[in-house]
Amino acid sequence: MTTDTQKYNDALSSDDKAICDLLANTIDGILKDAENKIWHRHPVWFLDGNPTVGYSKQKAGIRLMFWSGADFDEDGLNVKGEKFKDASIFYNAVSEINKKDLKRWLKRSREIQWDYKNIVKRKGKLERLK
Fold first, then answer.
1. Is residue 130 very low, low, confident or very high in pLDDT (cuts 50, 70, 90)?
2. Are strands 61-66 and 87-91 parallel, antiparallel or unpaired?
3. Helix, strand, or coil here: 9?
4. How many structural domains is the chain composed of?
5. Which residue from 5, 69, 116, 129 has the least number of CB within 10 angstroms?
6. Average pLDDT for residues 7-34, to the nearest whole number?
7. How far apart are CA 67 and CA 44, in angstroms?
8. Which domain holds residue 36?
9. pLDDT, average across residues 36-48
């Protein structure tokens, strides 16, 4: 976990910090080659410069979002984006995290990717990379 991500997590309540620490450590363990940084004020992991997975504190809880998750065909990722190909799940306790699902989603995030890195250049049009 990068120092900036740790600072983000440390600023949260103890329950939210526990969720985010588990998410960050699991993401780092599965996406070992991903670049992790704070992007738009929350932790995001990038593969080849393309945003892949991240989380943020929201009113409904900690939102774990996969930028290409709508194409994972996973019932657990039940908060679908309306404009793009993202899908999310909210957590309010560590006990809600199904580690088996999380690891599967992270592996799928490497296999299924839309090109968000070049979305501005393509004037909002997404193209599938993988």
1. low
2. antiparallel
3. helix
4. 1
5. 129
6. 98
7. 10
8. 3-111
9. 96
